[in-house]
Amino acid sequence: MAAATACVSTGCCSITSAREGYGRQQQGSPSNAAAKSLSRSSFCGDKVAASLKAQAWLPATPKRQNAAMGPIQVSSVLAELDEALEDGTEEKARVDPRTVLSIILGGGAGTRLYPLTKRRAKPAVPIGGAYRLIDVPMSNCINSRINKVFILTQFNSTSLNRHLARTYNFGKINFGDGFVEVLAATQTPGDRGADWFQGTADAVRQYLWLFEDAKNKVVEDVVILSGDHLYRMDYMDFVQKHRDSGADITISCVPMDDSRASDYGLMKIDDEGRVLYFNEKPKGDALKSMQVDTTVLGLTPEEAAAKPYIASMGIYVFKKDVLLKLLRWRYPTANDFGSEIIPASAKEFNVQAYLFNDYWEDIGTIKSFFDANLALTSQPPQFSFYDATKPIFTSPRYLPPTKIEQCQVVDSIISHGCILKGCSVNHSIVGIRSRLQEGIVLKDTMMMGADFYQTEEEVAQLLKAGKIPLGVGENSRISNCIIDKNARIGKNVVIANTDNVQEASRPEEGFYIRTGVTVIEKNGIVKDGTVI
């Protein structure tokens, strides 16, 4: 992409690398009818046969030793071609990425991630020290060569729009018919024109007219994505399986074991992978009834025995005409894909399951977000940003390397542009432009960093005036905590939640507690000597 940059933190410095967008279109082999027609043509001869063999549509024949052996018999070449075609050995046509449109749903209020979503949209929440959640589906689209992307937004979308404009700007380089466009919730004339987005399906419905626009005429399939998942996926393989199966709708799913299955919407499939029905977060006997033979989707017998359930990832591929029919005519009042459109469609449309047997995490809650971030520090992590072949892109910030002076850092990620002096960091993530002073102990903590620097003179003036600068002050001890951007934590602060409080809201003191995790809100101020 033009402005997109893959950022990798390496302890005390950062490495940025640019990557161009799209590979060339892969060409499929001709249809049986076309090839057979060609084989009957009077123009068939040595050149055509050689071309076909070079593309692996004909078996190779021994080279002629000398001219005395005579010319190749065209009839034998044609017979070999017919036999190859009848055996079905020709390769299936590959999906052209230009015929695929991606829609990323980013308009939810994000109540489960509050207070991280107090002033930003859910896809704009920082992750991994240097990225935002929206970078995950956007990078998957880029790495899958999908260059038509819409992002639907509604709540607190200012920072999300700014990040998208800075990072995924297609305007400076010609990407053909590719685009990245933000579609904000709007009000229009008409009976329902005054309504904001009522759900995921309604958000797409309100922009159906745009998906039929002239620039989208070549689109055959629409990929619906969520903005709050952490995973790395080749969407073109997803779409390829969708087309090969002849499905109207294909749902991406992950295998689940007994311990986690009841937390997700589960699917029941037949022996051909067709979805029969859904059950949302079943318990007890209802859970047992949702077991399926996951070897049908490609798992080994051992894997299938350990994970006998499949859970929807909330990622779908629709035939474009089917999507238009469902939203406009068949279910004009349905507001949600997962709970309304998809379960109802399984009764009358060909809905197939696509198995994604790799790391995937729904990080829509404070607890899951916190755990997924700290899991990045594991050795080796289940998900890694350190993949040069399929990078996660983000905004280029041009920050200097991190400076570390007399510190102890263990199993942690230190992003770029940080200043650490005489502190201890253990099993934590330290975000961009973070400042940690002497005597600090940071453990099991996700620190998002800051949007700007304060000079040494500014810091000295603030301290002299009895105010608190950005970052964490001297001799503070922090654990099991999320520190949002631009937070100011004073000296000798203790954040440990020793009383194991599960839920609390103290906005006047700059913090919340959600499922036992302390969250210092964005721009929050924690005074010197505070104990949480």
Automatic annotation (TrEMBL):
GO terms for cellular component: chloroplast; glucose-1-phosphate adenylyltransferase complex. It catalyses: alpha-D-glucose 1-phosphate + ATP + H(+) = ADP-alpha-D-glucose + diphosphate. It is found in: Plastid, Chloroplast. GO terms for molecular function: ATP binding; glucose-1-phosphate adenylyltransferase activity. Its main location: plastid. Signal peptide: none annotated. It holds the Pfam family NTP_transferase. GO terms for biological process: glycogen biosynthetic process; starch biosynthetic process. InterPro entries: ADP-Glc_PPase (IPR011831), ADP_Glu_pyroP_CS (IPR005836), NTP_transferase_dom (IPR005835), Nucleotide-diphossugar_trans (IPR029044), Trimer_LpxA-like_sf (IPR011004). Residues 102-378 form the Nucleotidyl transferase domain. Its EC number is 2.7.7.27. Pathway: Glycan biosynthesis; starch biosynthesis. Keywords: Allosteric enzyme, ATP-binding, Chloroplast, Nucleotide-binding, Nucleotidyltransferase, Plastid, Starch biosynthesis, Transferase. Belongs to the bacterial/plant glucose-1-phosphate adenylyltransferase family. NCBIfam families: glgC, PRK02862.1. Heterotetramer. This protein plays a role in synthesis of starch. It catalyzes the synthesis of the activated glycosyl donor, ADP-glucose from Glc-1-P and ATP. This is Glucose-1-phosphate adenylyltransferase.
